[in-house]
Amino acid sequence: MVISRHITGKIRSARYLVEAILLPVYFFLPWLRWGEHPFIRLDIPNRKFYLLGNIFTPQEGYYLHLFLIGMGLSLFFFTTLIGRVWCGWACPQTVFTDVFDWIGRTILGSKYGKKDASKPGKALVHFLWILVSILGALAWVSYFADPYEMINEVKSSAFLASPPVWTYFTAFFTATLYLDMAFVREQFCKYACPYARFQTVMMDANSVNVTYDFKRGEPRRKAGVQEGDCTACNLCLVVCPTGIDIREGTNVGCIACGKCVDACTKTMGKEGKKTLIGYMSETQAYQPGTKVRWIRPRSLVYGTLLLCVLIAAGTLLYNRVPLYANVLPDRIIQPMEVPGGLVRNFYNGHLLNLTFEQRELKVEVADSTLRSPVHILLGGTEKPAIQVSGNDSQDFRIILETTPLPEDNSKPTHQISLRITDLKNPNFQLKKTIPFRIPIK
Ligand code: SF4
Ligand code: SF4
Question: What interhelical angle do 119-141 and 165-179 show, nearest 10?
């Protein structure tokens, strides 16, 4: 485990500010309500995702695909422009490490991370780390289980006798978070995070990243003889959480946290000079005074693709009807001809109301490839509509009947387009195409 030396400075203060905003977001987002409903929740047992008052189901998997593609392209786009800034500034791994470090430094002071720190002090640090791990694990679990229900369950007398499933997950994530923060930390970023492997391909000489101004810095001071500006104080090295030497060039282990920038700003400040390490592109390090090229083929391609995905997702969301309908021919009762030349087809339907309001849904034949008119019966009766409660589903049966004209009999299968409309809101409408079979005589 590397516990890097603490350093103060402008970047450290700015990161504290960002973390002060992010931590409440991580912890309290699942507690927020949109009206009476969850602001955000992935309800895995019921296969529903709640977001901003909307309910999404696995049948709408294309939103997930667009989300993942969008996330991937954002990763490409922002890494091309500003390097691995997500890792150093916003990733929960980094934010939580800072929280754990703050606890360690508050309790142990300058002895934090040293072997000769007092044993009771170390024990207290680990105790507080476990407490924070429990809180972190609960925060994570509450993205999947209702935190208000979790509180009620804890209060109930049956809690200890039969703990709910979320308690096992909380225990697992507590152990994971504690072990990660106490023993792995930024070594995860260096060796395990897949994003670190990507970054070298996504970045180029014009990407803004933490970079060492080797032109000014080298050759660094040796045995008191100074040629370049680097004093070889090695402060940038000892503050680095991943234990790398940024003076050796862009490194896969650099998470762009900027600690070395603050370190060098301090050292160079004593010499009355500008920092040798800063957020700049390699081109700027080679040719001081050049401006960052934000617009270049790579950023244009990623930016355009990201914009296309955003437009596609926006259009789909704008036109989305929060209703899922599935209508399948009955497997048991086959299409049949009844006396009088009438042909009947039987179907089983399933309606899923993805809103929180009750809906009265009218099912009617909108179009058909049959020449003869098609009559519809819901559940075998002339029922006008199906009632579906908010955030609920309803199974139903449909019978379609027609008296086929001679030209209809020439084709064994026809297409029927069903229109499902909310009686109170005609814009809440969905179409579904189903087959209609004429039995062979
Ligand atoms: S090299 Fe600097 S920016 Fe990169 S991880 Fe180390 S301290 Fe952070
Ligand atoms: S902190 Fe600056 S001066 Fe000190 S070793 Fe690093 S680059 Fe050189």
Answer: 140
Which ligand has the nearest atom to the CA of 211?
1
Cβ of residue 254 lying under 6 Å from some atom of ligand 1: yes
Residue 326 one-letter amino acid: N
The answer, yes or no, to whether any atom of ligand 2 lies below 6 A from the CB of 252, is: no
Cβ-contact 255, 87 below 8 angstroms: yes
Q: Is 84 in the pocket of ligand 1 (CB under 6 A)?
A: no
Domains observed in the chain: 10-76+84-193 (no CATH), 323-437 (2.60.40.10)
CA 284 / ligand 2 centre spacing (Å): 18
pTM of the shown model: 0.84
| Residue whose CA is at the smallest distance from ligand 2 atom 4 | 233
* Ligand 1 binding pocket mutation candidate from 214, 255, 262, 264 (most atoms within 8 A of CB): 255
Are the C-beta atoms of residues 33 and 40 closer than 8 Å to each other?
no
User: Which amino acid residue places its CA nearest to atom 3 of ligand 2?
Assistant: 230
- CB of 430 within 6 A of ligand 2: the answer is no
Report d(CA 401, CA 384) in Å as an integer: 16
Q: Which ligand is nearest to the CA of 220?
A: 2
Q: Which of 246, 261, 266, 280 to mutate to test the pocket of ligand 1 (most atoms within 8 A of CB)?
A: 246
Q: Output Rg (C-alpha) for the chain, integer angstroms.
A: 31
> Does ligand 2 have an atom closer than 6 angstroms to the CB of 240?
no
With a 6 A CB cut-off, is 7 part of the ligand 2 pocket?
Answer: no
Q: What is the pLDDT along the chain (441 residues), one digit of tens a residue?
A: 668 899 999 999 999 999 999 999 999 999 999 888 999 999 999 999 999 989 999 988 899 999 999 999 998 999 999 988 889 999 999 999 999 999 999 999 989 988 889 999 999 999 999 999 999 999 999 999 999 999 999 998 888 888 899 999 999 999 999 999 999 888 888 888 887 777 777 888 999 999 999 999 988 888 767 788 999 999 999 999 988 999 998 888 899 999 999 999 999 999 999 999 999 999 998 888 899 999 999 999 999 999 999 999 999 999 999 999 999 999 999 999 988 889 999 999 999 999 999 999 999 999 999 999 999 998 877 777 999 999 999 999 999 999 999 888 888 999 999 999 999 999 999 999 999 999 876
Which regions of 147-292 does DSSP assign to beta strands (E)? 209-212, 277-280
The SS3 assignment for 349 reads strand
Q: Which atom of ligand 1 is nearest to the CA of 263?
A: 7
Give the residue among 12, 52, 47 at the shortest CA–CA distance from 32. 52
3-state secondary structure of 373: coil
